[in-house]
Amino acid sequence: MPLVSVPGEGTRPTTDRVKEALFSRLESLNMLADARVLDLYAGSGSLGVESASRGAKSVELVEFNDKAAAVCQLNAELVNKVLGSKVVKVQRSKVESFMARVADAGVDQWDLVFLDPPYPLTEEELTLVLELLGPRLSSYAVVVVERSARTPQPSWPVSLELLSGKKYGETRLWFAEPAGE
């Protein structure tokens, strides 16, 4: 689904090649139809918007940067208009604050989560977000972490286990799922 715009400086959009491969994989896993999707560090919201256009039931875009959050809002309004319902919502918030709020509120669990954090985010900060995310996942959820191919594999908390990883040029995707009981 085409976006209204992208934020520009300070964001690193997912390339078309990576997005195509990612959504092909998610469709093969049957992860999009009626999914509850969370897009953390959303940037333009392109991954969440694409999920909505492919049948997700609800999508939450979380972005702290003012300019990027405004672009997320424009893109959410566009896809909601096209779909005829308010599937995509935007939260202007730091990811850690958002995760703490939803944990305290007992918010529903997610089926698909995208994390495409900015490069300056440390591995320790990413691990903390993954730890906060673990209890908020459905039993069949998939978590997708997108990082530079030069960064190490995330340190998975005990609540998540690695399914696979794949490198696409300068980008690496890691797929994880809730750890078995």
Key features?
Rossmann fold; 181 residues; alpha/beta; single chain; seven-stranded mixed beta sheet
Description of the structure:
With 181 residues, this protein is an alpha/beta fold. It has one domain (16-178): Vaccinia Virus protein VP39 (Rossmann fold), CATH 3.40.50. Helices cover 34% and strands 28% of the residues. The protein is built from five helices and seven strands; from the N terminus they run H-E-H-E-H-E-H-E-H-E-E-E. The chain has helices spanning 16-28, 46-53, 66-83, 95-105, 123-133; strands spanning 36-40, 58-63, 88-92, 110-115, 137-148, 160-168, 171-178. It has a seven-stranded mixed sheet. Strand 4, helix 5 (123-133) and strand 5 (137-148) form a beta-alpha-beta unit. The chain is globular and about 40 Å long. The model has no long low-confidence stretch (mean pLDDT 90). Keywords: Methyltransferase, Transferase. It comes from Arthrobacter alpinus. InterPro entries: DNA_methylase_N6_adenine_CS, RNA_MeTrfase_RsmD, SAM-dependent_MTases_sf.
The first-level CATH class name = Alpha Beta
Write down the domain tally: 1
Residue runs with pLDDT of under 50 for 5 or more positions: none
Q: Note the beta-strand portion.
A: 25-35%
Helix tally?
Answer: 5
**Helix/strand class:** alpha/beta
Shape from CA axes? globular
GO biological process, one term: rRNA methylation
Organism: Arthrobacter alpinus
GO molecular function, one term: methyltransferase activity
Pfam families: Cons_hypoth95 (PF03602)
